[in-house]
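Thread: "does anyone have the structure for this chain?"

Original post by V.I.:
We have the sequence but no experimental structure in hand. Need at least a predicted one for the grant figures.
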Amino acid sequence: MTKQGTITFYENVDWKKIEDVTTPRVKQYLRSVCNYLLENIKGNVLVLEVGCGTGEFIRQIAKQVKNVVGIDVSNKLIEMAKKNLQGVENISLVKADIESIKIPESYFDFIISMWTLPNLDNPTSFIKKMKKALKPKGIIFIDTYSEKATKDRIKQYQDIGLTVLEANDKEIVIKEGLTEKIYTKEDLENLFKNANMKVKVIKIHEFGYLCKATK
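Reply from O.Q.:
Generated one for you, tokens below.
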């Protein structure tokens, strides 16, 4: 499940301010992930995005697939997404925690989760839940910041007025309630192995990894 401190953080944070202080290299990384997914997810397929945020990415992917379901644990973000996606008919939005919501088994062709993994209490359980919802030949895409992004992430938090209590090679701890785990490539490979999934960890940018996982 998502950490309660993380939920509180995302309910209260100023999203416009985050966008304003995001460093150029982090923005490059985010674009790299989005561009890769847009190139590789197309056609008459069903897509689930876990942690859909304000809906910016699913607006883009919805133009080239059959249907998209967006899930987010934050009431604030779901409401923002609803406003941003008004008039887009092939998108459904649900306020829920992925581990508590009932999802049909073997239902989605693609499952995406961007920048959610570092904030989870039990990432193995999270991946197993998504695995059950994936069709036999489906693909899960999960990305996360790399170790090299840590300095920029700390600067971003500080620039929006947050207090960094601790930062090491394992995690960044924010006084205001957020703890962000830092994953290495080996960590990610072991995580999917423990969930009994095959995975290719792609170094999509110096600041991030993209995991491409199958059953």
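V.I.: this helps a lot. The helical segments are 4-12, 15-21, 24-40, 56-61, 75-84, 123-133, 150-159, 185-194.
O.Q.: and The chain is about 35% helix and 30% strand.
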